Amino acid sequence: MGGSSESKQSELVQGTLDMLILKTLALEPMHGYGIALRIEQISKGVFQVNPGTLFPAFRRLERAGWLKCEWRATENNRRAKYYILTEVGRRRLKAETREWGRQTAAIARILEAS
Amino acid sequence: MFALRKFWSGLSALFKKKLEDGELDEELRDFLAQRAATKMQTGLNREQALRRARMEMGSMDSVKEKVRAVGWETAFNSFWQDVRYALRQLRRNPGFTAVAVLTLALGIGANTAIFSVVNSVVLQPLPYAHASQLVVISEVFAQTPAGAGLQSSESYMNFLDWQREAKSFSSLAAYQFEQTTLTGHGAPTIVPGAMTSSSLFTTLGIAPLLGRTLEPQDDVKGAARVVVIGEGLWRGQFGADPNIVGKSIQLASQAFTVVGVMPADFRYPDQTPFSEYWIPAMQSASYASFIDQRAPHFLIMIGRLKPGVAYAQAESEINAIHKVLVKQYNTLDPTEVLHVSNLKRLVVGDTCIAPL
Asked: What is the DSSP letter of A74?
């Protein structure tokens, strides 16, 4: 994902947060902070995920039926709301990933043309 | 399916609002605590870490607001809040409330009243079969002032010629309002009605409730006196006598045989009060002195066009017939021009467009 050597944090590309959340949850169910942390870590700190965008996204994805949630005990025995990718969400992720690939390839071709 | 799910989850959220809010609260506090814990690992003390985390997150309330704004039920909730607020305000200002309610009530009432008139008079077609074929024949003379409005009046003799000659019409009729005195049934009563060519009933296409309508043999001069009465008169004066047909009644001191009863919703020519009897034009005492003259114009003439005949076509035909009549009879006004227009014009007049 846009490998960068800079340590500067950037805003997420518009409309990609949903895809990143779905992708993160494709591995295993996670709670809100875990998801944010995972996105930040895997992007090597390029993306900072703000709760003001993260939680509305959870709600939106849940309403769309791509996520469901469940209160579970955490590793250190507290309770937390875990988000789980549904089957519909999994299909959605596939479609979005394919579309993203198509778009970035197209953009790269445009940028490389001279 | 998708929309249904959204609707359903919104609906359940409406009822579980408290619970969801509590959960969201917990989730956000948790998020904050964990974020702070992560920051402490980089060497910040607890206080600093917490403050940083708070700053990054912004106000907790604004985050919650954004989350709530996702579903449709939020719009519903704020609408409901507005409604309750409005009701509270109204209760607090009874004077204003009374004025507002009264204004609305009067406004709605007046609109409804006017619309029901416009609707029944202007918008609805006349209550006859194939109402668009029904026309009124009106005339304009050289001395008719401009903007005089619709004038329909013909002599019975001219009408008979048109009725015989004109091919554009499946039926032509001529009539005039009149009233008579009904005697012999309790106190003498003045009854509104019409004298008419028998063709009025076939032109409008309305069947009688009992017996028959007027028929061509009744139009003949010297024919037996007959009358068709309205359902209102039949019920009111004759106690809905099922054997009324064939009985004799006294109109203007002359005996008329009742040949039929028209249903209550037939009250043509529609004037207030409604027509309650119809007699052949030839037998009208009121118009007897000029029924067989050409110059006095006193009959309203209406007709039913044959299917597919245009108004203009019918108009040129009756004008052509009229030219022949003018040559034959020097009592006729040669400047008379006839017009054919929808029968509605007779009811609504030329004001038809104004209310719209």
From this structure: -
- What is residue B145's three-state secondary structure? coil
* Element of type H or E holding B80: helix B72-92
Between CA B335 and CA B353 the distance in angstroms is: 28
Whether B291 contacts B115, CB under 8 Å? no
- Residue B17 DSSP SS3: helix
Tell me whether residues B58 and A50 touch, CB distance under 8 A.
yes
Residues of A with CB under 8 A from a CB of B: 31-33, 36-37, 48, 50-53, 55-56, 58-60, 62-65, 71, 78, 80-81
Mean pLDDT of chain B: 87
Dihedral (CA of B291, B294, B296, B298) sign? positive
Chain B partners within 8 Å of A62 (Cβ): 9
Please write the tens of the pLDDT for every residue from B27-49.
898 898 888 988 888 888 889 88
Number of Cβ within a 10 Å radius of residue B38:
16
- In the beta sheet, which residues pair with residue B136? B302, B341
> DSSP string of B159-174?
HHHHHHH-SSEEEEEE
Peptide bond into B273 cis (omega under 30): yes
Using alpha carbons, select from B201, B193, B337, B191 the residue that is nearest to residue B279. B193
Instruction: Say yes or no for a CB contact (<8 Å) between A52 and B9.
Output: no
B60 phi and psi angles, rounded to 5 deg: -60, -40
B159: closest CA among B277, B297, B337?
B297
pTM comes to 0.54
Return d(Cα B196, Cα B208) in angstroms, integer.
Answer: 16
Residue B311, both tokens = 């108004």
CB neighbours of B335 closer than 8 A, spacing ≥ 6?
A: B141, B142, B143
Using a CB-CB cut-off of 8 Å, the residues of chain A touching B62 are 52
| Minimal-distance CA residue of chain B relative to A70 | B23
Rounded to an integer, what distance in angstroms lies between the CA atom of residue B182 and that of residue B234? 12
**ipTM of this model?**
0.80
Contact B56 A50 (CB under 8 A): yes
- The pair of structure tokens assigned to B238 is 């004759």
What pLDDT shows up at residue A3? 40
Question: A33, B23: Cβ pair inside 8 Å?
Answer: no
What's the pLDDT at A1? 40
CB contact (8 A) between residue B30 and residue A80: yes
Rounded CA-CA distance B201/A3 in Å is 93
